[in-house]
Input
Amino acid sequence: MLKKILLGLFIFLCMAFAWFYIVGKGWLGTDWYAVPVTDGPRPIQQSMSERPDHIPTEQQLIIGRYDTPQILFGDLHSHTNYSIDAYVFNTKAVKGGGIVTPADACDFARYCSALDFWSINDHAEGLTPRVWADTVKSIRECNAAAGDQANPDVVSFVGWEWSNGAKDDVPSHYGHKNVIFRTWEEGQTPTRPIAAAPGYALGKAPAALLGLLSLTDGVQDASDLGRFINESNETPVCPDDAPSNELSADCREVAMTPRDLYRKLDEWGFDSMVIPHGLAWGTTNPLTADFRDQMDQYEQRYENLLEMYSGHGNSEVFEDFQRIGQTSAGERYCPEVTANFTPCCQQAAVIAQARCDDSASAECAQHAEQARTAFVEKRGQQGRKLFPDATLDDWAGCGQLQNNFQPPSMYVPRMSAQYNLALGFDTEGMPKRARFGLIGSSDGHQGRPGSSYKETDRLLYTDSKDLGRETISTDFYKADKESGGFYYTGGLVAAHAQGRNRDAIWDALSNRNVYATSGDRMLVWFDLLNGLGGEVPMGSEVMLSETPRFRVRALGAFEQQPGCPDYTIAALGADRVQSLCGGECYRPGGDRRKAITRIEIVRIRPQVSLDEVIRPLIEDPWRVKECPADGSGCVMEFEDSQYGASARSALYYARVIQEPGALIAGDPFGCEYNAQGQCIKRNYCIGLNAQPDDNCLSVAEPRAWTSPIFLEYP
Output
């Protein structure tokens, strides 16, 4: 009898495995394509392209003349289900967001977020010839629906993400970069994207495991995903024996290094730009990565912009800390605690000491030292297993950058914007500098570019998953659930453009006449007043020997009204407004702007010798101005009398701080404070702390960052 039961169980398991394998291989699935985009255009006057004509007369001195370039807002980093990770994240088993295509992203950008421009950037490593063709088709449809091409409601750029992920080999880890093209017409777009690897890591999941998704998503949806992954895996790699523009359209082209990528883009000959992003995000980058290691691959003619802020955090500041120290002799040790960073080896000692009966005893001190040493010996986050029953709050935010505005999880300091801008040499000691303009974007995987207009729907507008399913791994600790609390609605790029058309926007991006925002549509100007030909804007590179004089002008973002404009409801219908926009849209109301509370100036003087220490070269903040709290805007003028005497090049950028507001993960640690302002308990936005209807709001200060003005001393 027992043998029959076991045999029956064995047969059942074999049949279940076979069924899930069939579903996971996609044999029951179908190919899906983007539906046509919704007819446009939207009324441009509703999009708030932010010309200052509405400002009362008494404020005109603040913002200048009416004939200044208009400020347009965009998102140059958006994923749909054509990115395999986005597809998996949007399944019911993980998040339940549903399938989104480039056409959905177009509709969202036009009618929900009311952007002026955006781009599609699905992961090239998983794209197939079929879905790339469908992506380009959708972008062409989106632009065709934009109305007058000299004055379109929204400009849609086509591109992809090149994702180099050699995390175990730090020198060859070049990070993630978005490739964007100026044109999208027939014959003006590459016939295939260029990937950084032959396939995408998430595409290697066993078929039977994918088939298990049918238990939550249904057989059809699970098998559609399996079919897409199988299609991606079966796409052959192109031979590297011909120029990129002569290869077949039916293969996956691979460029393993940035230099290879630039060569292939040169072979196509189309205007394009390559925008690195997420460099300081430690969940996808080596924790010991250093931008200097890839300076020999850097080419400004392509990498002119840096996505410094996104839905994965703010990569601005350089904090000189280490997780595990190492002497010149190769001996490892536990570094000291800094004002904004606690190495987890130090917190291990704190936990050990807290568990002593007599914390002041010599025996307890010995236990603490043993814990500190054991953590170092376990080489990083594996050391957390020393205390398997310890809670995330017991670890007290160790290993994370603290006291900073919305940082990425597991911050990598030597990949930050400030560090990159301060470098003057590559690893071989050759003079080399990166002159980045600074932008923000969303890096969202929901097909919803520009989703930062309201902080109303965490699961729809951010990459947060449902009910604490975030188990994003790091190099050392495979259950770093803290990372799930570090998802934000994302940022925007603001462009000072001479018009609304494609060429005007592209010129502003190419000239670095752009700035980043954390999502709110603040208006910011930053100018050098005494350039050789007069005033020059942010992003400029100027040869100067005299004392430079600068001016920053800023206005806060408009207050938002609830709901969506009538034109959105008329175009999409009430049901789709709810499913696509979450029932909320960009909808400014009245003349009331949020107050700018202060302007901070950062000065960086890049290295003039290879052995020059980076930290003292970054002065943050170098100048500060407190602003009126009445929402009338703020003006700051300043000069650098030390510039000429120092006889060295320098760069300056402005950080504009807006009045505090409730933001999704405004404080990713979810701190509770004592009377002294110390964080005494952390409530990460994960697990039971973050139910699907919980937006995990906390107060923070939205901000904008201008592109630097680069002064080169002759």
User: Anything to note?
Assistant: Residues 1-30+206-236 form one domain.
